[in-house]
């Protein structure tokens, strides 16, 4: 009976993940549809794009929470609620750090690059790519990869 319960819990976790994945409205797809129908610059198009952008952000946050609650998909018993709390708090700290610190640094880099003309220094490109790599490592460490 215990094995049956584990299979049901695993199925429920997969259903939560699939439901969240399928509920995400594809921002680029809607953008192409509106551009093809020449509705991109109309009031309806602008409203649809704003709503889709907001929906996309909210859905990805919910998807990250679903992944945090479900876990890695391994069927090795129950998962502590502290792990989900760790993922939630660490994710919020990561986003706040990115919005406060990294955004300020990237604005400084953008000002330096735009004032020099057409050429972008290779050091700024390497800095940006290294930042992306570090961000990927940190989100993997947190568990919201």
UniProtKB/TrEMBL annotation:
Transport keyword on record: yes
Protein name as catalogued: Cation/H+ exchanger transmembrane domain-containing protein
All residue ranges annotated as the Cation/H+ exchanger transmembrane domain in the record: 15-145
Origin: domain of life: Eukaryota
Localization per record: Membrane
One GO process term, biological-process aspect: proton transmembrane transport
Listed transmembrane segments: 15-35, 47-71, 83-102, 123-144
Coiled-coil residue spans: none
One cellular component term from this protein's GO annotations in UniProt: endomembrane system
The keyword Amino-acid biosynthesis belongs to this UniProt entry's keyword annotation: no
A Pfam family recorded for this sequence: Na_H_Exchanger
Key words of the record: Ion transport, Membrane, Potassium, Potassium transport, Transmembrane, Transmembrane helix, Transport
One Gene Ontology term of the molecular function aspect: antiporter activity
InterPro entries: Cation/H_exchanger_TM, CPA2_transporter, Na+/solute_symporter_sf
Topology of this chain in the membrane: Multi-pass membrane protein
Organism encoding this protein: Cannabis sativa (Hemp)
Family classification: Belongs to the monovalent cation:proton antiporter 2 (CPA2) transporter (TC 2.A.37) family. CHX (TC 2.A.37.4) subfamily.
